[in-house]
Automatic annotation (TrEMBL):
Taxonomy, superkingdom: Eukaryota
Record carries keyword Hydrolase: yes
Signal peptide interval: none
Protein name, UniProt field: Alpha/Beta hydrolase protein
InterPro entries: AB_hydrolase_1 (IPR000073), AB_hydrolase_fold (IPR029058), AB_hydrolase_sf (IPR050266), Epox_hydrolase-like (IPR000639)
Hydrolase keyword on record: yes
Length: 297
């Protein structure tokens, strides 16, 4: 399912941003962690975090769907991960949240880092997982990272159309890829059916085709952040699974060292963890998040 609630923020001429709060409300007496989902997922990716009473009693969880995802939409067909970072900061503004921690899965991780670069005084800590801070470079591919352009550009070409496509519905092949790559260790038939249904609801009609096309464009053409990481001052707890298919574990070991100005850096390698680590290994993720927020709130 996509977010049932949306708010309007001003970036890009007026974005309608999909979001979900734990306990259905914002409690200003608690610290807040913003959750940013991975490619083609929605706020539903974080059900294991929202169902953890230890987390929701200790902090507000605010899941926000990036541009091109879930219930989020905007008048501009083109956008980048920087735009999603600005949008998410404006979602915080809307609810009067001055400071927050940010957890991001896969693409959510590098959106989170962009938020800390754009508003360093507002981000208290970062928790990227299943991520790489590089673009899809030859260097990263030589260290075991994937080459999405080789396999995914065909979808981008297929979703490009000079005329409106009112009958468009995302195909089963794409739905299967999204689920199997991210939930590698446990793509149960029930979960695959849930995400296939969700993707087909989100990515339908001409607007849905444009959304998924640009979401993929953001992935294929994103800029790297390696030279910017030294400017991050907040703590960084990076979690990576040993079974992370797109990025493996070599690159995180190297890149965590580039956060040279951070108050604290910690790389946690999760045995058996897949790409969508918060879904495949929620216990390890939830424990690490609680420790970071408790220490730095």
């Amino acid at each position: 399912m996509a977010a049932a609630q949306t708010i309007q923020v001003p970036h890009l001429g007026g974005i309608k941003a999909g979001y979900l709060f734990s306990n259905d409300r914002y409690d200003p007496s608690k610290p807040t962690c913003v959750l940013i989902n991975s490619m083609c997922m929605t706020v539903a990716l974080y059900q294991d975090q929202f169902n953890d009473k230890k987390l929701t009693e200790a902090m507000n969880l605010l899941a926000v769907e990036p541009l091109g995802h879930g219930s989020t939409s905007c008048p501009s067909e083109h956008f980048t991960y920087w735009d999603s970072a600005i949008m998410t900061l404006q979602v915080m503004d809307h609810f009067g949240i001055q400071k927050a921690f940010v957890l991001g899965t896969s693409q959510g991780g590098w959106i989170a880092v962009r938020m800390a670069l754009l508003a360093p005084d507002r981000i208290l800590g970062l928790m990227p997982m299943g991520a790489s801070m590089d673009y899809e470079s030859a260097d990263s591919r030589s260290k075991g990272c994937w080459d999405p352009a080789a396999t995914l550009t065909v979808f981008y070409d297929k979703w490009t159309s000079p005329s409106a496509t009112p009958d468009f519905v995302i195909d089963d092949v794409w739905c299967g890829l999204v689920g199997s790559v991210g939930l590698r260790t446990e793509p149960t038939s029930e979960k695959m059916a849930f995400w296939t249904k969700t993707l087909k609801e989100v990515y339908k009609g001409d607007e849905g085709r444009k959304k998924v096309r640009m979401a993929l464009n953001c992935l294929l053409t994103r800029d790297g952040l390696l030279l910017r990481l030294r400017d991050i001052k907040c703590p960084v707890y990076w979690l990576q699974g040993t079974d992370d298919a797109p990025y493996g574990t070599v690159v995180p070991v190297e890149q965590i060292k580039l956060f040279t100005s951070s108050k604290e850096t910690k790389l946690i390698i999760v045995e058996g963890g897949a790409h969508y680590l918060n879904a495949t290994n929620p216990t390890e993720v939830n424990d690490a998040l609680l420790k970071m927020v408790t220490k730095y709130q």
